[in-house]
UniProtKB/TrEMBL annotation:
One Pfam match: Gly_rich_2
Residue ranges, compositional bias (Low complexity): 245-255, 585-595
Composition bias, Pro residues: 556-568
Name listed for the protein in its UniProt record: Glycine-rich domain-containing protein
Segment forming the signal sequence: 1-39
Region annotated Disordered, chain positions: 162-206, 240-266, 279-312, 540-595
Domain of life: Bacteria
UniProt source species: Streptomyces violaceochromogenes
UniProt keyword annotations, A-Z: Membrane, Signal, Transmembrane, Transmembrane helix
Length: 640
């Protein structure tokens, strides 16, 4: 697992260059303690979504990143469960680095408050560990911290000391606790920081910086073998002494390792604080579900001191109790059928509370269950593909999975389960051979106000055995919602059947929004082949312009290859209306349509002045491009 997941899981490397083009941009790793798909949420929260521990609904995990990250406390949240590790110090074959510190507790916060997050890692962190005094010596670990927007420390997890360069065995000091540990080399090793006071250096090693001066670790003494650097923290550890040129080693050791930095929790803001010290180079709280080992045998796990290796990175995790989720409604991807070897578009759920309103910032865990051995997997950004991922709900309460690939060409079915605190739902994906391929040609991802027609007709394109389907092929369009307030064709029909024209396209009658609001799925199917359209109904207060809209706020993949058979492009033409059906049940499924990819349909017959005014108003938030041209389209997997 990439990013060092807490529990080993089945993972797969990407399958060739073509697979890289299908990577979902909102994906991540999958387990408790593992980063995931997106930082979407009501306040565009920083960090990556993670599976919260029991009793929490939201979770963000922060790994090292150059510079600071800003986290905005979600609405209604007054307390954050905090877990923070500092970086372990580097070590060599003779002197191991000290472990980073660990701080946990409940941070009292105000909804909307901005917090500054700095996570320790290579060239990253709140304060920097001291440099080693030579190429043989190692640097101290950097500190991780949570601070107010004004810079006041709330939580600081110190870094461990770096190993000295001598040929004699030694151990750098681990980070605090309220005080960092001293290095093991008596009279030669740097001293650990004590509270806000930096640790003393030994010999020509530098003292660590006090809290008032930034908390950096002291540099190791310069010399032939060099002393180890002190770890950073609330205050920094001192550097060890270095051996002068010509000094002997072995039985007459002359260098020392660095001392550990101190950790801190602001008493007025952190309840039930725990400041835990590691043991030597062993990281503290390795049994915590968010601690992660290294993904390779060379590097160190989170906060581990280096044993002939760099020290392990820091990590910060924030959890909170938000509005409870009472129901996860499937909004895209219901009853999907796809061909063997063909990727499945993202699935999506809507998290709702008991009052039916959307719940933002909740962590949704998607898990694939594969009884038929089809080897499905999520395409994950930045690491191996896997069968589990975590996605946060956005401001509209939606959480969308990554694209799903298939590792075999067998027929069968698999389940994708979406789960959050308080609710779960399961999607069934069937994999079955079919001579037909159905794709959404026009009308996908539109918005309409309650009671109004959607501006553009839904148009499905049908390919049979790699060629344009014969004219007269019947296509069934079905609104996948039985509620009376859901959209209906021409205001009354849930199911309609129309026939394709000479270009293989079938055009559904006008779709009219009902009184219900939210995203609805419309399936278009021929035999065992199917695609889905996502349409959104917004409140009829005049604040939303009918027409295309993405509804999810996240970008879609931009593939360079289409996994489905395709025919040559042909001119658009209207389909021929066929029979309509009442509330019949669809007998097919197919590749689902995601909420944020695909074509942007025509904006309809609106005044150009109104169009440009809407564009100007949306430019400030980055959506102006959706309105600049009435026929703007984006390539997707359904475009052939």
């Amino acid at each position: 697992m990439h990013h060092g997941s807490a529990v080993p899981r089945r993972a797969r490397l990407r399958r060739g260059a073509a697979a890289l083009t299908f990577v979902a941009l909102t994906a991540g790793t999958a387990l408790t303690g593992a980063p995931a798909a997106t930082a979407a949420g009501s306040a565009a929260l920083a960090g990556t979504a993670c599976t919260p521990t029991e009793g929490f609904s939201g979770c963000r995990l922060f790994d090292p990143k150059t510079g600071t990250q800003e986290f905005t406390v979600p609405s209604g949240v007054t307390g954050l469960d905090v877990r923070a590790w500092g970086q372990g110090g580097g070590g060599n074959s003779m002197a191991s680095g000290g472990a980073g510190g660990f701080v946990a507790g409940t941070l009292k916060v105000t909804p909307g408050e901005a917090l500054s997050i700095a996570v320790a890692g290579l060239n990253a962190g709140d304060a920097l560990g001291g440099k080693g005094g030579s190429n043989f010596a190692d640097r101290g670990g950097n500190s991780s911290a949570i601070r107010t927007s004004g810079g006041s420390a709330l939580v600081v997890a110190g870094g461990g000391g770096g190993g000295g360069g001598d040929m004699a065995h030694g151990q750098a000091g681990a980070a605090g606790g309220e005080s960092g540990q001293d290095a093991s080399e008596k009279d030669r090793g740097g001293k650990g920081a004590t509270g806000a006071k930096g640790g003393a250096g030994t010999g020509n090693g530098a003292a660590g910086a006090d809290q008032a001066k930034g908390g950096a670790g002291g540099a190791g003494g310069v010399g032939r073998y060099g002393g180890g650097g002190g770890g950073a923290g609330y205050a920094g550890g001192g550097g060890g002494t270095g051996a002068e040129t010509g000094s002997s080693t072995g039985n007459d050791p002359t260098t020392g390792s660095g001392g550990g930095g101190s950790s801190y929790a602001e008493p007025a803001r952190v309840d039930d604080a725990r400041l835990v010290v590691g043991s030597g180079n062993k990281a503290p709280e390795k049994n915590d579900p968010f601690w992660a080992p290294s993904g390779d045998p060379v590097n160190s796990g989170v906060a581990e001191g280096g044993a002939n290796a760099p020290g392990g990175p820091g990590r910060i995790v924030l959890q909170w109790r938000g509005l409870p989720v009472d129901r996860l409604a499937q909004v895209t991807g219901t009853d999907v059928t796809t061909q063997p070897g063909t990727d499945v578009k993202p699935l999506a759920v809507l998290a709702q509370g008991k009052d039916g309103k959307p719940v933002a910032d909740a962590s949704v865990t998607y898990t694939i269950e594969d009884p038929d051995g089809l080897k499905p997997f999520f395409y994950l950004t930045g690491g191996p593909d896997d069968d589990q991922t975590v996605v946060a709900t956005d401001a509209q309460g939606r959480a969308q999975s990554p694209w799903i690939g298939l590792g075999s060409r067998k027929e069968g079915s698999f389940t994708v389960r979406a789960k959050t605190l308080g609710a779960s739902t399961a999607f069934t994906v069937r994999v079955k051979e079919s001579p037909y391929t159905v794709s959404a040609s026009d009308g996908d991802k539109q918005k309409a106000e309650q009671g109004q027609d959607f501006a553009d007709a839904l148009v499905a394109r049908v390919v049979k055995s790699g060629k344009t389907a014969p004219a007269g092929t019947e296509v069934e369009f079905r609104v996948e919602d039985t509620a009376e307030d859901a959209p209906r064709f021409e205001g009354e029909d849930r199911v309609v059947r129309v026939k394709t024209d000479d270009s293989g396209k079938a055009t559904a009658p006008a779709l009219t929004a009902g009184e219900g609001t939210g995203t609805y799925t419309v399936a278009a199917s021929v035999g065992d082949a199917m695609t889905q359209f996502a349409v959104e109904v917004v409140e009829g207060d005049g604040s939303e312009e009918p027409g295309p809209g993405d509804g999810s706020g996240s970008p879609s993949p931009s593939p360079t290859a289409d996994p489905s058979p395709s025919a040559e492009p042909s001119p658009s033409a209207s389909g021929t209306s066929g029979t309509t059906g009442g509330d019949g049940t669809s007998t097919t499924g197919g590749t689902s349509t995601n909420l944020d990819g695909g074509s942007l349909a025509s904006t309809g017959a609106g005044g150009i002045g109104l169009l440009l005014a809407a564009a100007a108003g949306l430019a400030a938030v980055g959506f102006a491009a959706f309105r600049f041209a009435p026929r703007l389209k984006l390539r997707s997997r359904d475009d052939v």
